[in-house]
Amino acid sequence: MKTKRWFVDVMDELSTNDPQIAQAAALLRENEVVAFPTETVYGLGANAKSTDAVKKIYEAKGRPSDNPLIVHIADISQLDGLTGPAPDKAKILMKRFWPGALTLILPCKPGALSPRVTAGLDTVAVRMPDHPLALALIRAAGLPIAAPSANLSGKPSPTKAEHVAHDLDGRIAGMMDGGSTGIGVESTVLSCAGETPVLLRPGGITKEQIEAEIGPILVDKGIADQNEQPISPGMKYTHYAPSAPLVISEGSPERIQTLIQEYQQAGKRVGVLTTEENADFYSADYVKSCGRRDQLETVAAALYDALRSFDEEKVDFIIAESFPDTGVGLAIMNRLMKAAGGRVIR
User: Fold this and answer.
1) What are the structural domains, with CATH classification, of the chain?
2) What positions does the entry give for ATP binding (predicted)?
3) How far apart are CA 290 and CA 321, in angstroms?
4) Given Cys at both, which of 99, 130, 246, 307 links 318, Cβ 3.0 to 4.6 Å?
């Protein structure tokens, strides 16, 4: 399959009638899959109503079919055909954070979507992205769009079109190149299906921001038992992982430097994921800074690109510094823990 690629300047005023957007939307209506940028990461979109279309997402990504997908909409009115009445707290969050990096899990109307989108559950994950190209594409298609991240399953999510091309060129019908994404980690996923909302995946909207609007919420540990069915995207299987084994160190830079030397003496090519404050301290074979520790938004935006760079440098082992698990740091640590398979050196 030849993947069609469109380059779109997102700084221009975009219209559903723009030829490139119209062509991509036509592919979606034909039940093909198209990658497109959002404010979080690049998504791999397909008609959420068509099982044939959604099946192509799973095939392209190599994604297990019991992992549900997020449905992207461009207007609140689209919810009427997809979900039951939204709880009051969900309405408050929609008004405050949509369009934006918040996914809400709501009761799904029977028959509204392909069962492959919900993985057979009676709920659906929905969000409205805050990106002009994504919104224009969804409106032009006239469909709810199911879209996980546009990468091979288990690999770091794509924040640049080049990442999408590396993983999926020749496996999908089309790709819209809108430059780098802004937030750099996926949306926050919050279940509103019960009486008290539950944070299932930390992301671009922080727990603190949510609680400022609706009061205390519950927090899932974020690690699903391998025999359980996940109720939210990103809760099951290893995610975000470079090829080399990765561990998180909660120790001091001096402790990390000792680990580097131990692995190098064993003949390993060692990579370190760090921040600007410590980058010059380490003698690893490859040192990658992903921003400043006092500006965790910069770390989140650069995280996946940094993880992918370790594959390019062909390291044998990766040591990642840990981060505070508050604010966006919770999302950073969630992604690192997934990439490390829970391996932490204390």
Assistant:
1) 4-219 (3.90.870.10), 246-345 (3.40.50.11030)
2) 63, 67, 123, 149, 157, 201, 240
3) 11
4) 246
Q: Which residues are annotated as a binding site for L-threonine?
A: 40, 72, 127, 147, 187
pLDDT over threshold 70, residue 310 = yes
Binding site per annotation, positions for ATP: 63, 67, 123, 149, 157, 201, 240
Q: Do residues 213 and 74 lie in contact, with contact meaning Cβ atoms separated by under 8 Å?
A: no
pLDDT at 7 over 60: yes
Instruction: Give phi and psi for 289, each to the nearest 5.
Output: -90, 140
Q: Could you tell me the end-to-end alpha-carbon distance of the chain, in angstroms, rounded to an integer?
A: 47
Binding site listing: 40, 63, 67, 72, 123, 127, 147, 149, 157, 187, 201, 240
Residue 239 has pLDDT above 80, yes or no: no
Place of tokens 């790709």: 175
Contacts of residue 156, Cβ cutoff 8 Å, sequence gap at least 6? 163, 240, 241, 242, 303, 304, 305, 307, 308, 339
Residue 80 has pLDDT above 90, yes or no: yes
Provide the 8-state DSSP code for 228: S
Q: What is the pLDDT, as a whole number, of residue 224?
A: 35
Question: Can you give the pLDDT at residue 225?
Answer: 35
**DSSP state string for 283-309:** --SEEEE-SBTTBHHHHHHHHHHHHHH
